[in-house]
Amino acid sequence: MLNRRLVGTAALTLCSATALIAGPASAATKTVYAGPNAKLPDEALTVNDFFRKSITIRQGDRVRWQMRGFHNVILPARGDKPPAFFAPDPVAKVTGVADAAGTPFWFNGQPRVQIDPRSAFPTGGRTYDGTTLTGSGLSQTDGPPPPYTLKFTKTGKFAFYCTIHEGMKGTVKVVAKGKKVPTAAQDRKAATAQLAKLTKQAAKLDDVKPPAATVLGGSDKAPVAWLKFFPKRQTVKVGQPLTFSVTGSQEPHTLTFGPEAYLKQVLEGQITPVPNPQGPPSLVFDPRVLLPSDPPPQLPPYTGANHGNGFFSTGVIGKGTPGGTKTTITFAKAGSYKYICLIHPEMNGTVDVK
Question: Which residue ranges form the domains of the chain, and what is each CATH number?
Answer without folding.
Answer: 4-83+114-201 (2.60.40.420), 203-353 (2.60.40.420)
